[in-house]
Amino acid sequence: xxxxxxxxxxxxxxIRRNKTRWRGLSAEQTDSAFFNFIAPAWGYRAAFITLKNYxxxxxxxxIASWVSxxxxxxxxxxxxxVNFVAQKTNLLPNEKIDCNNKNVMCNIVAAMxxxxxxxxxxxxxxxxxxxxxxxxx
Length: 137
Fold this sequence. Notes:
Layout: H1 5-8, H2 40-58, H3 63-70, H4 78-89, H5 102-117, H6 123-133
Helix pairs in contact: 2-6, 3-4, 4-5, 5-6
């Protein structure tokens, strides 16, 4: 079975390369489009911080608004993505999310990871990413 790009890069939510100098980046960035992290937890950490920043900087805090920004319709079937995450988390697409609720956030990020990679997330990696995210950028 072929391993997905996101898992191969330890970047389960496929965060695109930009000028951000994330903690936990691999010394060599071998993918021209997406970050490489040293372990999946560091990729999850970046995802949690990004979603929290979506709330802080852009005022968006629902699955529908997050996924629409994360996986825009020009590149993805955003409606299916939103519905998948909502179904997996038992949350409504437009329900306000408390970004400080560990269980809710871990379930959302795990569902997004599954959508991105086609396999369930390893919850111990997701939860370690949450723990790492509590220290900030």
